[in-house]
């Protein structure tokens, strides 16, 4: 880092190896980069799972993989992409950019932030380790009673039910942390209605996490009790009701959809104004529509359950409530177009992906309205039509937006620009491949192809659409190779990015690329929205002078700590303990107790650790 | 989306499992509201995508261009584009609610169709059981229904959740172990209509298919009569043998020699052998071969009429002798994980069982 | 998850906050909001299954209201005690702080002990964890509440240890305040559980 050049670091800092540095860091930027790296690794694993699935479905009656392995692959694909790829890729941007966007030097609780990271990483590794014994095979939705011990006797679903609890802890801890950070760590003058839109959607996302994850946590605890301790919360033989699982799962599951898409909305709302050189159209409408979407998100869960036969009144209620969501979502799309309208559109790679996002998200939104029509949903639910719909939202939506964010913020994160030519190749290849993969799935679904089937008879008309989807999927993998090539090329290049390559509007562009450990040498003061544009306008320039590196004397930064990692290991051991057979009369064994003790011990040491003990600069 | 709409029009009527070519009243109601939604969606899609691309194209700028006019928003515009989608949604919402209520009610008896026909559907891992309480018939994987008469399905499962789906007749309805769910449909044309389980239900979810055989009313009656006729053992019982011995003792030899000859001609000896094997191998432990007076919930699919079914292995394979033999001899090879075990069996025994099952018409 | 509150704001002296509330206090409120949903889900599950007694014992066979009422009273008092202790901490009144905080910890211990006794007692009356759904839902709900009481007691005991060592001067009273906030929440949850689980189940 630049600081070591400017100032000889303290002896104990210099002695720490790179590995120890990253394992003990509490710097939100390093944590963000690690979130991104791990999430990308898991994203690739989930992608390989998808490719095997597509290869199996390329033609009717194929037998590339066994049905058992197929079921494991689609379960892990869904679980991985939701919990280990899209959520943590969003978390990468929360971590790196929320403090920068609000003008803070770190998050409210840096060590808690490190713990969120490590719990996520260990939880992700734990889930993927299941392939050694038998990966989860009951679907990412784990419907009872199929997920019960009686119908899923192996360890497969134990991995799932425990892995998701571990990941939930990471999400909840991050939720508390970012909620507090955003509300309490804003630069002077940055009122709520001056916050960048990405900060708003992150704040709303955290509210959703905080209110939705406890529900799935309880559901998972009850299912775990059924599987491991012999209760029958969801098992009919003991008087349980499988419908309770569905309600609990979807009370979480639908807000989860917005947890996956709201950060994407925020990223797009940052990029469009910068590359249109015009402020976000209808800022307050965007804030209210995001909040309204989140609010409605808690009242529509049963639209995932139309086929259970809830009766016409419930069907009508959830149909109409779901349709209502289309209104604020439409407002957002119109405002994005309104932002571009009348602007001076600079067609750089981040803008390509942002426009691609809007174009694809419209598609996913409209097929979403088709599902809201409850009678039509009776035909579409659990078919490839739904698979097409949510990939338009999650890939065409979230992944396109996250990619846009990666190209946009790469120079700030790493101090180097990704290659524009490769970026545009990446975009066009991804756009074409994405549509080739997922558009035909609409037809496969309407022609009657159910989801989650490991093979299908020929002659029903959807053979060709499956073949197209498979070809598209492999092309899509190719587009990711272009991205990785771009990253490697950029990595090896010596060309440095300026602090503000895009004529940015927000505070992160006022500091060096990459930022120094303390982010802001001087704590910024904000007087209006798009503060950096205001500064430039006041200075009568389009390019502020390149910020100087400073030595950071007198800036207090939290020191590194081992305790977040140790507590995370304790949490992992605690949960792994439930999977290990023991002979005790209690529902837990010695490993669980060791994990618990390690967690509590770690928290104590953490609480009493002098905060400034290792501070780099005094 | 335009391509989408055109392709939709192109798809209709082509394929047997398509949701786009309804052959029953329930599916027609659904299709009507779906198509309405598709047309609205197409209009919106074209307008909005065109607006987006137009904006990008028209307002392309160069890096050196002067700063465009800084507009922060417009309340009037916000109100307009809140109200217009809301109005469009009303056009979708009204038929949606109407259709929800229309499809919720099982139609009353009609002049041509008569009373709705009740069928109890039971989901099993991984096949469907059908029971006609009014007719006393139990069958599996092929649901025979008369054209023109409303079918009133009452559904449950004995194990995990499944979802009953015949795309050309009706939407999906999930089945639960602890409560009865219902759906209905009226077939409008005779034919064989494929259906599938649409709720993930374990390792063989992919091969949990079935057919609805919509028969002309007369054909349906004939099928019912056939099913209601108790399946009799192939081998004449020992009693007639005793009779013939008695006859032989008392008089004409012709009767004595003619009777077995007729039987031998009518019944393939392989089938006789197969019938014995059906019990000896334990098949009978799970499979009933008669449709009437059977246990309340079967372990394995009822095999009455298996000889003339269209498909075997829960709608997966055409009912040919070769397929049937493969299915009997190597069920785990065809559908790994099914409850039917691979029994030690010679090739000849396989043939014999096939011959026997063929006699169950 | 309670670590949220244990993580000291990284720079207590030099930092301004956007809202007139300390980071840790805001975080514990946020955490409590999340916990509300956790307990709401557990309580709903109990409501769904409270009549599913099967062949095992039901509420009327096992509940002993006087004991639980006593426990409830003790927990309620402890909320008052911890307010007194906090007052002592903020005033720098060591004696007041130590007295009331010790009493609070004792109340926590008593309540946790009562629950252990209750579970042991119910178990010997034939209600195991998986005997029937009423039992499973009851033990899960009250067990998680009991775990919260136990962890809260541990937390308060740690603060008490600091106080005894003289490491809780008025400017660090916030350390006690956030523990107290959590403790009040645990009490409030019990105030819902007590009527919903015990009184309403008996009244039916």
How many beta strands in the DSSP annotation of chain B?
12
Major beta sheet, strand line-up of chain B: 3-2-1-5-8
Distance between the termini of chain C: 37 Å
The Cα radius of gyration of chain B reads: 29 Å
Q: What is the subunit arrangement here?
A: heterotrimer
Q: What is the averaged pLDDT score of chain C?
A: 90
Average of the residue pLDDT scores of chain B: 87
H and E string of chain C: HHHHHHH
Class based on secondary structure composition and strand pairing of chain C: mainly alpha
DSSP summary: helix tally of chain C: 7
Largest sheet features of chain C: none
Number of H/I helices of chain B: 10
Strand content of chain B: 15-25%
Low-confidence stretches of chain B: 236-265
Q: What is the β-strand count of chain C?
A: 0
What does this structure look like?
The complex is a heterotrimer of chains A (618), B (361) and C (204). Chain A is an all-alpha fold and 618 residues long. Chain A has 19 helices and no strands. Residues 1-12 and 613-618 of chain A have low confidence and may be disordered. Chain B has helices at 2-11, 25-58, 75-104, 217-228, 238-250, 253-266, 269-280, 321-329, 331-334, 347-358, and strands at residues 117-124, 127-132, 137-140, 142-146, 150-157, 162-165, 173-175, 181-186, 191-197, 209-215, 311-312, 317-318. Chain B is built from 10 helices and 12 strands. In chain B, 41% of the residues are buried. With 204 residues, chain C is mainly alpha-helical. Helix content of chain C is 76%, strand content 0%. Chain C has helices at residues 3-6, 23-49, 59-62, 65-91, 94-124, 133-164, 173-202. Chain C is elongated and about 60 Å long. Mean pLDDT of chain C is 90; it is low at 1-14. The interface between A and B is large, with 93 and 96 residues.
């Amino acid at each position: 880092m630049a600081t070591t050049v400017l100032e000889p670091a303290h002896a104990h800092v210099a002695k720490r190896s790179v590995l120890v540095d990253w394992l003990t860091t509490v710097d939100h930027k390093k944590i963000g980069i690690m979130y991104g790296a791990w999430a990308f690794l898991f994203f690739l694993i989930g992608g390989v799972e998808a490719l095997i699935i597509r290869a199996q479905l390329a033609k009717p009656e194929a037998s590339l993989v066994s049905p058992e392995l197929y079921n494991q692959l689609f379960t892990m694909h869904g679980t991985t992409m939701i919990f280990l790829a899209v959520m943590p890729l969003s978390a990468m941007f929360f971590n790196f950019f929320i403090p920068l966007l609000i003008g803070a030097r770190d998050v409210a609780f840096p060590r808690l932030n490190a713990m969120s990271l490590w719990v996520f990483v260990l939880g992700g590794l734990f889930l993927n380790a299941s392939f050694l014994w038998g990966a989860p095979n009951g679907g990412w939705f784990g419907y009872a009673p199929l997920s019960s011990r009686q119908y899923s006797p192996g360890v497969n679903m134990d991995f799932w039910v425990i892995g998701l609890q571990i990941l939930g802890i990471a999400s909840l801890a991050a939720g508390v942390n970012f909620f507090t950070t955003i509300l309490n760590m804003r630069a002077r003058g940055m009122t709520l209605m001056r916050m960048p839109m990405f900060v708003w959607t992150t704040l709303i996302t955290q509210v959703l996490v905080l209110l939705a994850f406890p529900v799935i946590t309880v559901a998972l605890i009850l299912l775990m009790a059924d599987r491991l301790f012999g209760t029958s919360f969801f098992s009919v033989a003991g008087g349980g009701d499988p419908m309770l699982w569905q309600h609990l799962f979807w009370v979480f599951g639908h807000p989860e959809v917005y947890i996956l898409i709201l950060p994407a909305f925020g990223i797009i709302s940052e990029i469009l104004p910068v590359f249109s050189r015009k402020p976000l159209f209808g800022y307050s409408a965007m804030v209210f529509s995001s909040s309204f979407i989140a609010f409605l998100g808690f009242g529509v869960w049963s639209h995932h359950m139309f086929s259970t036969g809830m009766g016409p009144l419930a069907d009508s209620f959830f149909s109409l409530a779901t349709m209502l969501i289309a209104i604020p979502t439409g407002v957002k799309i119109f405002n994005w177009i309104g932002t571009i309208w009348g602007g001076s559109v600079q067609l750089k790679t981040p803008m390509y992906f942002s426009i691609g996002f809007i174009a694809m998200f419209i598609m996913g939104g409209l097929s979403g309205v088709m599902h809201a029509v409850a009678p039509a949903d009776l035909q579409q639910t659990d078919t490839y039509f739904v698979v097409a719909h949510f990939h338009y939202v999650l890939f065409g939506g979230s992944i396109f937006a996250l990619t846009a964010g990666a190209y946009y913020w790469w120079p700030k994160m790493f101090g180097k620009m990704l290659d524009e030519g490769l970026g545009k190749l990446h975009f066009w290849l991804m756009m074409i491949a994405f549509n080739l993969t997922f558009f035909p799935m609409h037809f496969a679904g309407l022609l009657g192809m159910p989801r989650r089937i490991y093979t299908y008879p020929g002659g029903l008309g959807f053979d060709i659409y499956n073949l197209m989807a498979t070809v598209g999927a492999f092309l899509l993998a190719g587009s990711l190779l272009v991205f990785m090539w771009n990253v490697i090329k950029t990595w090896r290049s010596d060309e440095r990015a300026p602090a503000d390559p895009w004529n940015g509007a927000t505070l992160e562009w006022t500091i060096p690329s990459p930022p120094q450990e303390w982010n802001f040498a001087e704590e910024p003061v904000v007087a209006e929205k798009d503060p950096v544009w205001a500064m430039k306008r006041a200075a009568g320039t389009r390019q502020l002078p390149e910020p100087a590196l400073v030595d950071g004397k007198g800036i207090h930064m939290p020191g590194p700590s081992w305790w977040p990692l140790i507590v995370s290991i304790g949490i992992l051991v605690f949960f792994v303990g439930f999977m290990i057979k023991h002979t005790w009369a209690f529902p837990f064994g010695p490993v669980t107790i060791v994990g618990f003790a390690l967690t509590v011990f770690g928290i104590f040491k953490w609480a009493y650790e002098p905060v400034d003990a290792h501070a780099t600069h005094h | 989306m335009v391509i989408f709409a055109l392709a939709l029009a192109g798809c209709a009527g082509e394929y047997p499992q398509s949701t786009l070519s309804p052959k029953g009243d329930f599916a027609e109601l659904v299709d009507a509201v779906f198509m309405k939604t598709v047309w609205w969606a197409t209009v919106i899609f074209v307008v909005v995508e065109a607006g987006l691309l137009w904006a990008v194209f028209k307002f392309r700028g160069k890096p050196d261009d002067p700063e465009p006019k800084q507009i922060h928003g417009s309340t009037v515009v916000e109100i307009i584009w809140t109200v217009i989608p809301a109005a469009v949604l009303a056009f979708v919402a009204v038929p949606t609610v109407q259709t929800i209520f229309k499809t919720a009610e099982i139609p009353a008896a009609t002049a041509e169709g008569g009373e709705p026909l009740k069928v109890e559907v039971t989901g099993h891992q991984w096949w469907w059981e059908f029971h006609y309480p009014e007719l006393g018939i139990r069958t599996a994987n092929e649901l025979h229904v008369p054209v023109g008469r409303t079918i009133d399905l009452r559904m449950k499962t004995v194990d995990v959740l499944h979802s009953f789906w015949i795309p050309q007749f009706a939407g999906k309805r999930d089945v639960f172990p602890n409560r009865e769910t219902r759906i209905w449909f009226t077939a409008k044309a005779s034919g064989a209509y494929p259906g599938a389980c649409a709720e993930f239900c374990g390792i063989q979810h992919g091969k949990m298919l079935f057919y609805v055989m919509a028969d002309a009313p007369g054909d349906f009656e004939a099928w019912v009569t056939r099913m209601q006729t108790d399946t009799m053992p192939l081998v004449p019982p020992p009693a007639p043998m005793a009779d013939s011995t008695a006859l032989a003792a008392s008089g004409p030899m012709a009767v004595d020699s003619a009777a077995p000859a007729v039987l031998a001609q009518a019944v393939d000896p392989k089938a006789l052998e197969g019938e014995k094997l059906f019990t000896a191998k334990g098949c009978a432990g799970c499979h009933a071969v008669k449709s009437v007076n059977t246990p309340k919930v079967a372990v394995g699919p009822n095999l009455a009429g298996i000889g003339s079914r269209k498909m075997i292995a829960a709608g997966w394979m055409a009912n040919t002798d070769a397929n049937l033999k493969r299915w009997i001899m190597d069920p785990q090879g065809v559908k790994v994980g099914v409850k039917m075990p691979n029994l030690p069996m010679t090739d000849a025994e396989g043939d014999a069982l096939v011959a026997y099952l063929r006699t169950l018409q | 998850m309670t670590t949220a509150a244990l993580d000291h704001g990284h720079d207590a002296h030099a930092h301004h906050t956007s809202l007139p509330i300390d980071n840790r206090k805001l975080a514990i409120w946020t955490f409590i909001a999340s916990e509300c949903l956790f307990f709401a889900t557990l309580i709903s599950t109990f409501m769904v299954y409270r009549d599913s007694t099967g062949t095992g014992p039901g509420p009327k066979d096992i509940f002993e209201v006087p004991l639980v009422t006593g426990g409830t009273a003790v927990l309620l008092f402890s909320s008052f005690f911890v307010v007194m202790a906090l007052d002592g901490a903020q005033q720098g009144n060591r004696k007041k702080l130590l007295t009331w905080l010790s009493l609070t910890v004792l109340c926590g211990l008593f309540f946790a002990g009562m629950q252990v006794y209750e579970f042991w007692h119910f178990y010997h009356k034939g209600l195991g964890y998986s005997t029937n759904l009423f039992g499973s839902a009851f033990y899960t709900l009250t067990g998680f509440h009991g775990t919260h009481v136990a962890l809260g007691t541990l937390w308060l005991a740690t603060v008490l240890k600091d106080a005894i060592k003289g490491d809780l001067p008025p400017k660090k009273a916030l350390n006690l305040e956030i523990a107290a906030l959590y403790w009040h929440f645990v009490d409030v949850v019990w105030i819902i559980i007590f009527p919903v689980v015990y009184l309403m189940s008996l009244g039916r």
